[in-house]
Amino acid sequence: MADKRATIVIVHGAWVGGWRWRNVADLLRDRGHYVFTPTLTGLGEREHLTSPEVNLSLHARDIANVIKYEGLENVLLVGHSYGGMPISQATELVPEGVIRSILYMDAFLPEDGQSLNDLVPGEPHLPEDPNDYLVPPPRLLLQGFNAHMTPEDRASYEDRRTPQSVHCFTEKARLTGAREKIPQKTYVIATGYKNDTFAPVAQALRKRDDWRVEEMPFTHDLQHVAVTESADMIESAVP
């Protein structure tokens, strides 16, 4: 457990919103931390703002603006799944030293010039209609993603997921090394499912002295299936 009040910004994955992290955020707040779970433009309660202009750069700006306008310092920045893309680029927009720790939870970790579609195995995320810009959320019952949910939970989850601009998945990250200057860097791999997407990331980072790599024996939706354990892991990365 952390022994001091921390400032934590948690960024959700694709097709959802800040609501997806409410239970973990509430637990961290109960423990005395200052927690933000911003919803990225065009998603969740901000779905009415979607447009073809919504892309990775805009989502990175969403995060940087929370930090700027809330006047946050000594930040622990957390990203889950797709959230690893915009938190990576957001490090380029925030003054050096503001983000003291960064935590990727079963998340994409791009290098400069890589898009999410470059990193995802299998079929890229693209619109069903080539004349459209919106990528619908997958509706399949996928092992490791929503197979763990009760029918009621799954219905609520599906009802609140929203299509997402393809440009979030196709825009290349523009990184110049700001992320690497962050003093504490942690990567968490979920090992409770066949994790072909993120296991190679964890394997590569284990060879680096400047990254801490941890495992959680759960499925990808850590914030849903392991609320307390996710809060504990986030606390472990407090700067």
TrEMBL record:
Hydrolase recorded as keyword: yes
EC number, as in UniProt: 3.1.1.88
The keyword Nucleotidyltransferase appears for this protein: no
Pfam families per record: Abhydrolase_6
Keyword terms: Hydrolase
Segments forming a coiled coil: none
GO molecular function: trans-permethrin hydrolase activity
Lineage top rank: taxon: Bacteria
Name assigned to this protein: Pyrethroid hydrolase
Biological source species: Croceibacterium atlanticum
